[in-house]
Specification:
Length: 676
């Protein structure tokens, strides 16, 4: 057992014992001085700590010290009533502080009580209550600010974790302090009651049982009571003061002394005015010499501070010039310029208010929601999205970059809304024609005044932040396979490893490497298939990787094992879904043109034949779009991946599904066939 644990145990146990067992006056003197010493230590620790959390144990400390102080009070009361003597400390306080005068001692004691009750305790209790409430109310905003900084790359994951822990510690501390201040208030109340009992009980014992006259009993027991009250109330006052200092501490930069001096004596003009006012008071009935001395001191201090500030300003200017010159002379460090952000959103200065939290912008919050949405939808963690302004862009323009290369852009009108006709609205509204950036649909910019009318007519009305967020989401979704790195795959493996140790040990690296798993997952993401069900994916890979290491073939096996999810994604329940089939002749031609290499298989069709197939596919797609149907082509399992590769360049969003990827209860209706 540690020595500190033993000391703490004794510190808590001894007061409980002394509530019952009489204490010798010598031992009582020792513990009373210890009580005063600990109170001073607590006060100065609270005074010089840089932030409140440095004394996170303060609520517990309040409870323990209060119990200790009350036990001493009870012991001293017992000695006063039984022996008429409570030790040298109590006697000294009664004689010295009160000057041996009953009236003076009583007045001083009452003043101390008033100070503690009305000023310090009341203020500390109110500050603790308000601080606890505001700390709890501010927690969601602080958490969102941390998420925003994390998404923009301003802080690392470790720093974000540390800041979140600090927020939790602050809420727990101030919540505990809200209750702990009641200990101090109760201690003061108990001390006042005990003092009254001492006085009355002492008079009764002195007059009735010891045969003293009233004057003698009053003189003796009043001094003892006053001394006992002061011995207990002064440490209580110090602890109460410590509580007030701690809950009102706001600076996190330095100790309180430095902060107070810097804030009070940092403006020379204030000291000049104060000195002038005191110099004026010297010519009034006020003490002339004292006023003039203070006036001279404050004016001299103001002049010294002003001179120091001028010197610091000159030194800073010299340092800045030297740093600038040094930067020019030394070779440029270009290593930092080589870092490429996975996703960037650059915008002109006109869009800055949308990203600035202080101006009411919620774009950062929307970025957080985008990452959550894609994680839930596709099972992949989106890298941090860097937001930055670019003065080279038009004021209302934004550009989305993937790995440093622009892939899409858009332009918005600030304080306008985008209205889109869903297809059934006949009445037109006036506005500025434009195109929705995500899906290139025709739209109209309208003002705030037109919004209500447009919505009543049936138009889909979207605000600028939603436009940018939707556009960014679609770009990320379309390029998510490029963003999935080997490290991301390793993180996904680590995430499920604890619960699936056998599976992971069989698969990685024994059967497949991380790079091969990455290619399979990329193939799935490229066609919009969720990879959340990693256990099913990895089990399928473990089952089939022994027969083939071709990642394209393995992807097809995985897709077939995910047929429930694929069917649920593309085929609504209890509905007939219209699809297009592929001519068996075309399937045979595709399979006959496949060439196998060490790097994998590829299609070796003649260009004319390829173009004929693509033209036939386009015809069927156009037919389905005219009917308002989502283009879906169903093929045989062995052909699916090759047909998808054949059409992916021209028809990126075309859905190609094999028969083995469709659940048996799905109802399909073939409304066309790709044939040449």
């Amino acid at each position: 057992m540690k020595k500190t644990d033993i000391f703490l145990g004794l510190y808590v146990l001894v007061p409980i014992v002394f509530l019952i067992v009489p204490m010798p006056t010598v031992f009582l003197d020792v513990l009373m001085m210890l009580n005063i010493s600990l109170a001073l230590i607590i006060m100065f620790t609270a005074l010089f700590s840089k932030e409140a959390l440095q004394m996170s144990s303060f609520p517990t400390l309040l409870l323990i010290t209060t119990l200790f102080r009350l036990s001493l009070n009870v012991s001293s009361t017992r000695n006063i009533l039984l022996q008429g003597y409570a030790g040298n400390v109590v006697d000294a306080f009664g004689q010295f502080v009160g000057g041996g005068n009953l009236i003076v001692g009583v007045v001083i004691f009452m003043i101390l009580i008033i100070i503690q009750f009305i000023v310090i305790n009341k203020g500390s209790e109110r500050v603790s209550e308000v601080t606890a409430r505001f700390t709890l109310d501010a927690m969601p905003g602080k958490q969102m600010a941390i998420d925003a900084d994390l998404n923009t790359g301003a802080i690392t994951d470790a720093q974000a974790k540390e800041r979140r822990q600090k927020i939790q510690d602050e809420s727990a501390f101030f919540g505990a302090m809200d209750g702990a201040t009641k200990y101090v208030k109760g201690d003061a109340t108990a001390g006042l009651i005990i003092t009254g009992i001492n006085f009355v009980g002492g008079l009764i014992l002195g007059v009735v049982m010891q045969g003293m006259d009233m004057t003698e009993a009053l003189q003796k027991y009043s001094i003892l009571t006053m001394g006992d009250g002061l011995v207990s109330q002064i440490p209580s006052l110090i602890i109460s003061l410590s509580t007030g200092i701690l809950v009102t501490k706001v600076s996190k930069e330095s100790d309180l002394g430095n902060v107070l001096l810097r804030q009070l004596f940092s403006i020379p003009k204030v000291l000049y005015i104060t000195g002038g006012a005191l110099a004026f008071l010297a010519f009034t009935p006020m003490p002339t010499l004292i006023c003039l001395c203070y006036a001279i001191v404050f004016i001299a201090a103001g002049r010294a501070i002003e001179a120091t500030m001028e010197d610091v300003k000159v030194e800073n200017e010299i340092d800045e010039e030297e740093e600038s010159a040094e930067e020019i002379r030394k070779p440029e460090n270009v290593v930092s310029l080589l870092q490429v952000d996975p996703i960037e959103l650059e915008f002109g200065y006109g869009i800055i208010p949308l990203a600035d939290v202080n101006q009411g912008g919620d774009l950062l919050d929307r970025v957080v929601m985008i990452r959550r949405q894609i994680a839930l939808e596709l099972g992949c963690v989106v890298p941090m999205i860097r937001l930055r302004d670019n003065i080279q862009l038009n004021p209302n323009q934004y550009v989305i970059k993937i790995k440093g290369v622009p892939v899409s852009e858009g332009e918005i009108l600030f304080d306008h809304y985008m209205a889109m006709n869903p297809g059934y609205v006949e009445e037109e509204i006036t506005g500025i024609p434009t195109f929705e950036p995500s899906f290139h649909l025709p739209a109209i910019w309208i003002t705030e005044a037109q919004r209500e009318r447009a919505e009543s007519l049936g138009y889909t009305v979207v605000d600028p932040p939603s436009i940018i967020a939707t556009h960014l989401t679609e770009v990320i979704r379309n390029h998510l396979d490029e963003l999935l790195t080997r490290q991301d795959v390793q993180n996904l493996i680590n995430n499920i490893q604890e619960a699936n140790t056998t599976l992971i040990s069989e698969l990685v690296p024994k059967t497949l490497g991380v790079g091969e798993i990455q290619k399979v997952l990329q193939n799935l993401l490229a066609e919009g298939i969720s990879i959340r069900d990693l256990v099913t994916i990895f089990e399928t890979l473990a089952d089939n990787a022994t027969s083939t290491r071709d990642t394209d073939v393995l992807t097809e096996y995985v897709r077939q094992s995910l047929k429930r999810a694929i069917s649920n994604k593309y085929f609504p329940a209890n509905e007939m879904t219209s699809v297009v089939t592929l001519d068996p002749k075309i399937e045979q031609e595709i399979m006959g043109s496949i060439k196998q290499t060490e790097q994998g298989a590829y299609i070796n069709l003649e260009p004319e034949k390829t173009q004929e197939i693509l033209n036939a596919v386009k015809e069927e797609i156009d037919k389905m779009e005219e009917l308002g149907k989502n283009p879906i082509i169903v093929t045989s399992p062995i052909v699916r991946m090759y047909f998808k590769k054949l059409t992916s360049e021209q028809f990126k969003d075309l859905i190609v599904i094999s028969y083995n990827e469709i659940e048996s209860d799905v109802e399909l209706q073939s409304i066309g066939m790709v044939t040449v």
